[in-house]
């Protein structure tokens, strides 16, 4: 009897997670736990590629987790990802927030850069901007502080320089990251912010003094890396970012420049790679964009709305002085997103990709792709 009762409860929970967010609250209201999750169903067709990329359909990402609120100002989050037949640790942290001051400790994105920190269900296209993938931050284990007010957002923290699943022996290294946003214009939901960010990292003993930067096409369907720079004899790494975000009613604009500089031993030249992108969106039908002042990110225009989007991106991993030619990629994308409701959305996009002769996969070429996605998020 107990087994059947548990089965009924599990089915009930699964049914509620699709149609509505499941929330558990204590009688006194000092504890609340909310189920979160997403599932992304992707498909794509590739044209004129020298390397046979292969058309594909897949369940790209499945997430399950919970957000916990307790004792009024405390929050926790635990989220696991299931992508490419692998289980991975995503956001796992606790934080204290009194409205202006936020302290956080755990495993999460460092306060550096913008595009790669955006969740997969909130990405404007099927893949993040290639520059963000190549030079943006990753989730690391660390601690940070954020001060946030109407015109200013300042974040800083110290983190491990190695992924949480590191099994190698030796010192993991460390990194300091910081991000400053200034909002010269803020009126209701309309906001303009400009920002800068920086990251300094020192590798651990297990890294063997080599840093690798890599990225592929603006797609999650293919694993091939069209750009790849292996920087040997590394001493430390500096990253710099500059960003602009504008949310003006139905219009949305986002642009970012990222640079990675590696100081190397005296016997070789230092290495620098960089890139930038700019994307613009317009919300049709019932939608208008919003803005999250804590994260410094634009929010989706809402249910029954249609987004029209365009993005241009240049990523350069070539540095002749350092003797490292990792390739250069230009890509242009147009697309659209329709939000059926707060849980389900459909995406479609077209991308044109151009690689120079130093690209590690068959050198210079130009190809295009059409991609689609159905996503469920709650």
Characterization of the model:
This protein is mostly beta strands. Helices cover 6% and strands 61% of the residues. The chain contains two helices and 21 strands. Strands 2-3-4-5-6-7-8-9-10-13-14-15-18-19-20-21 form a 16-stranded antiparallel barrel. A two-stranded antiparallel sheet has the order 11-12. A two-stranded antiparallel sheet has the order 16-17. It is globular, with a radius of gyration of 21 Å.
Concise structural overview:
The protein is mainly beta. Helix content is 6%, strand content 61%. The protein has helices at residues 2-19, 130-135, and strands at residues 23-25, 31-47, 56-70, 74-83, 86-97, 101-109, 139-148, 152-160, 173-187, 190-203, 211-215, 227-231, 234-248, 251-264, 271-285, 290-292, 297-299, 305-319, 324-339, 344-355, 365-377.
What is the spatial order of strands in the main beta sheet? 2-3-4-5-6-7-8-9-10-13-14-15-18-19-20-21
Number of helices: 2
Using the alpha-carbon principal axes, give the shape. globular
Residue runs with pLDDT of under 50 for 5 or more positions: 1-20
Rg computed from alpha carbons, rounded to a whole number of angstroms: 21 Å
The total count of strands amounts to 21
State the order of secondary-structure elements, H for helix, E for strand. Answer: HEEEEEEHEEEEEEEEEEEEEEE
Sheet/helix structural class: mainly beta
**What share of residues are in beta strands?**
over 45%
**Main beta sheet strand tally, sense and closure:** 16 strands, antiparallel, barrel
In whole angstroms, how far apart are the ends? Answer: 32 Å
Relative helix content: under 10%
What's the overall average pLDDT, rounded? 87
